[in-house]
């Protein structure tokens, strides 16, 4: 059963504040988060009635000792070798969840590529450019922000690279 998505003007998170401050066009979508949901991203896609190819998850990985943000479609997974190559590294692994939360200022399942406590290098999967708009976490579980991939790349200084796999 699909959850009803609600539209709001502002979610009041560091991500939405960053978007508002920058003057970027965006829409915030809120939905009732189910804590027992096995996948935050798939839950968001279903609740919003959006294709999982347009909803992107924010993952924090460690590349050669440096924390890096990877933004990939929820319909697939992160290719760690491709991520390492995209930032000129040799080896990548998923970051310790506590380190990811501490560094970004967000909780797991609500990490946004925007408005992070400490700005990390960001890589956006190249498939994002094939959509008019994409959705990413707005900084809390049950809250997504919709914006153009180009705006997200600009705001995060992201590199676009094929880092996702189906």
List keywords for this structure.
single chain, about 170 residues, alpha+beta, five-stranded mixed beta sheet, four-stranded antiparallel beta sheet, 11 strands, disordered N terminus
Question: How would you describe what is shown here?
Answer:
The radius of gyration is 14 Å and the shape is globular. With 166 residues, it is an alpha+beta fold. The two termini are 25 Å apart. It is built from five helices and eleven strands; from the N terminus they run E-H-E-H-E-E-E-H-E-H-E-E-E-H-E-E. Strand 3 and strand 4 form a beta hairpin. The strands form three sheets. The protein has a five-stranded mixed beta sheet. The protein has a four-stranded antiparallel beta sheet with strand order 1-2-9-8. It has a two-stranded antiparallel ribbon with strand order 5-11. 25% of the residues lie in helices and 31% in strands. The protein has helices at 14-22, 40-48, 80-86, 97-104, 149-156; strands at residues 5-8, 27-31, 56-63, 66-73, 77-78, 92-94, 121-125, 134-140, 143-147, 159-161, 164-165.
Give me the secondary-structure topology.
Layout: E1 5-8, H1 14-22, E2 27-31, H2 40-48, E3 56-63, E4 66-73, E5 77-78, H3 80-86, E6 92-94, H4 97-104, E7 121-125, E8 134-140, E9 143-147, H5 149-156, E10 159-161, E11 164-165
Parallel strand pairs: 4-7, 7-10
Antiparallel strand pairs: 1-2, 2-9, 3-4, 3-6, 5-11, 8-9
């Amino acid at each position: 059963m699909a959850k009803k998505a609600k539209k709001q003007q502002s979610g009041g998170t560091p991500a939405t504040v960053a978007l508002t401050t920058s003057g970027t066009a965006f829409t915030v979508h809120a939905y009732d988060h189910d804590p027992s949901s096995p996948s935050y991203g798939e839950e968001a896609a279903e609740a919003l009635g959006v294709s999982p190819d347009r909803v992107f998850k924010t993952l924090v990985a460690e590349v050669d000792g440096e924390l890096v943000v990877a933004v990939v479609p929820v319909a697939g997974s992160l290719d760690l070798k491709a991520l390492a190559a995209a930032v000129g590294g040799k080896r990548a692994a998923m970051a310790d969840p506590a380190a990811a939360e501490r560094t970004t200022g967000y909780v797991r399942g609500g990490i946004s590529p925007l408005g992070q406590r400490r700005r990390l290098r960001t890589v956006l999967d190249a498939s994002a450019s094939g959509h008019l708009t994409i959705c990413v976490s707005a900084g809390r579980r049950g809250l997504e922000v919709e914006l153009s991939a180009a705006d997200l790349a600009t705001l995060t200084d992201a590199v676009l690279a094929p880092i996702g796999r189906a």
